[in-house]
Write a structure and sequence with these properties.
alpha/beta, Rossmann fold, six-stranded mixed beta sheet, five-stranded parallel beta sheet, globular, binds 6-O-phosphono-beta-D-fructofuranose
Length: about 525
């Protein structure tokens, strides 16, 4: 692979100063550097990639063994080597047939749990599952990371389809989060979902206990209004949740890949089992595309290769995800965990230090809000930020179609502005038309120059439905997988979160005054003293 990386670097060197806009001299550019899948269109023509660059990137994917590793993942091989686990979130959205893991067909259990979730959601939505107050009006999902970001993001994204109980999401150990959430709720009509794969996460278990105490002050049988989503039947039982209220899953579903199964229960309660089935169908559709489409037409592979081109080859260290869709407001946060927890590693699968950089910093906000905040830096800052725009052909507000067109116009305008820029001559002409002359004209014009030639891609879909959201999330999951394979890392562990957790546990008795801080560094000691001084 080393020679392909070198060829890519050489190729980049030879093209880096050319104009992306100039590439459109080729009338076929837009069509050639776009891919359609169903109603979706992915346009990556506003990047500095050409046929040679793309072909080298495709060689890289082949040399890294993307197709073999993809099949190993789908077939249940233990590709999460540092934890000795299979990676089978895809099995949660394609439950047909059989799938052997560790000598056992795992799909009957998946199907049984899914059927239990459907029955529970149907009964609760029909009012047959009640709280002490005779009904359930509100659901509080307590979880963090993958047990929060996915369902929360999807609940907001699919609000036009939500006709079930109101859902609320509590994640932060900061008591303000749960206090603000519970303040507006009636314990007699609230269902609490404790979502934690491990059922040990300190934030979730602390908030779950707070919720239990809150409910216990009013409700005679609080456990009857609790549900657990976890891999640990033992721990959910110890917390006092009856087995029939526990929806389990296996350790081959990674936390940040878990919204397709029990962790998605809040979403299923909100949009109903049929809507949830559409969400799974969208993901299964993307799975099939990923497995069967030729690499040059394969959306996850192309997204990954463009990511590699921008990050590892061009050296752009961050990537902005900019959905022009207000209801995808939590998508950037969701993708931060998916991409950065998966590919923010420093050693390859065999433990050797990486010779190339790992995944980029991922960030973003919905447009048009970001335009009035950080786009200044994207357009005129000294660093290049590749932008991934996302936009829908239709909104869900037919009466506000004119606003949707304004949204679309802004999305396309930003991508165009990033590529086109504005030269000094153009800026000078604008300032001259305003009556400026001499040195002042020159000075003012320089502030109005846009370097342009900044790459972006646009992912366009028909409308944000459960099916399309399923496609989007699965697309990004597989993109992360392909990037991880090319970088040679394990995208499915997250050892980097452990040290901070251990130190937090050790700091607790120090903050409580039960242990001295003298083993800590001077800064930590100073901060402990400051933060525990209540005088
Ligand atoms: O600390 C990181 C992490 O383990 C994530 O990977 C995970 O999504 C999150 O914590 C929550 O974990 P759990 O679902 O086990 O509570």
């Amino acid at each position: 692979m080393k020679n392909i990386w070198q060829s890519l670097e050489k190729h980049y060197d030879s093209v880096k100063s050319r104009s992306i806009l100039g590439l459109f001299g080729d009338a076929g550019r837009a069509a050639d550097f776009s891919v359609r899948h169903g109603a979706a269109l992915f346009d990556f023509s506003k990047t500095n990639l050409d046929a040679e660059g793309l072909s080298l990137l495709l060689d890289l994917a082949e040399a890294a063994g993307v197709s073999e590793k993809r099949e190993a993942m789908f077939s249940g091989a233990a590709i999460n080597e540092t934890e000795g686990r299979a990676v089978l979130h895809t099995a949660l959205r394609n439950m047909d047939g059989s799938l052997t893991v560790g000598g056992r067909d795992v799909l009957p259990d998946v199907r049984a749990t899914y059927a239990r979730m459907q029955a529970f959601a149907t009964d609760l939505r029909a009012g047959c599952i009640k709280g002490q107050g005779g009904k359930i009006t509100d659901v509080v999902n307590i979880g963090i990371g993958g047990s929060d970001l996915g369902p929360y993001m999807a609940y907001i994204a699919l609000s036009p389809f939500a006709d079930g109980p109101r859902c609320h999401f509590v994640s932060n150990v900061d008591g303000a989060h749960i206090a603000d959430c519970l303040r507006g709720l009636n314990p007699e009509t609230t269902l609490v979902i404790v979502a934690s794969k491990t059922f040990t996460t300190i934030e979730t278990m602390t908030n779950a206990q707070t919720a239990k105490d809150w409910m216990g002050r009013v409700v005679a049988e609080p456990a009857a209004q609790f549900v657990a989503l976890s891999t640990s039947a033992e721990k959910t039982a110890a917390f006092g949740i009856a087995p029939e209220r526990v929806f389990g899953f296996e350790d081959w579903v990674g936390g940040r890949y878990s919204m397709w199964g029990p962790i998605g229960l809040s979403l299923m309660l909100a949009i109903g089992p049929d809507g949830f089935a559409d969400f799974l169908a969208g993901a299964a559709d993307m799975d099939a595309h990923f497995r069967t489409a030729a690499p040059a037409q394969n959306l996850p592979i192309l997204l990954a290769l463009i990511g590699i081109w921008h990050n590892q080859v061009c050296g752009y260290t961050t990537r902005a995800v900019l959905p022009y869709e207000q209801r995808l407001s939590r998508l950037p946060a969701y993708l931060q965990q998916l991409e950065m927890e998966s590919n923010g590693k420093r050693v390859s699968m065999d433990g050797a230090e990486l010779e190339i950089h790992s995944g980029p910093v991922v960030w973003g906000e919905p447009g048009t809000n970001g335009q009035h905040a950080f786009y200044q830096l994207i357009h005129q800052g000294t660093r290049v930020v590749p932008c991934e725009f996302m936009v829908m052909r239709k909104g869900h507000e037919p009466d506000l179609a004119h606003q949707h067109l304004l949204l679309v116009a802004n999305c396309l305008a930003q991508a165009e502005a990033l590529m086109r820029g504005r030269s000094l001559e153009e800026a000078r002409a604008i300032m001259a038309a305003k009556g400026l002359t001499g040195a002042e004209l020159d000075r003012q014009a320089r502030h109005r120059v846009f370097p342009g030639n900044r790459p972006s891609t646009v992912l366009a879909f028909d409308q944000l439905t459960p099916f399309v959201l399923g496609q989007i999330v699965a697309l990004y999951e597989h993109r992360v997988f392909v990037e991880g394979v090319i970088l040679g890392i394990n995208s499915f562990d997250q050892w980097g979160v452990e040290l901070g957790k251990e130190l937090a546990v050790a700091l607790q008795p120090i903050l409580e005054g039960r242990e001295p801080a003298d083993q800590k560094d001077g800064s930590t000691r100073q901060l402990v003293a400051y933060l525990t001084d209540n005088t």
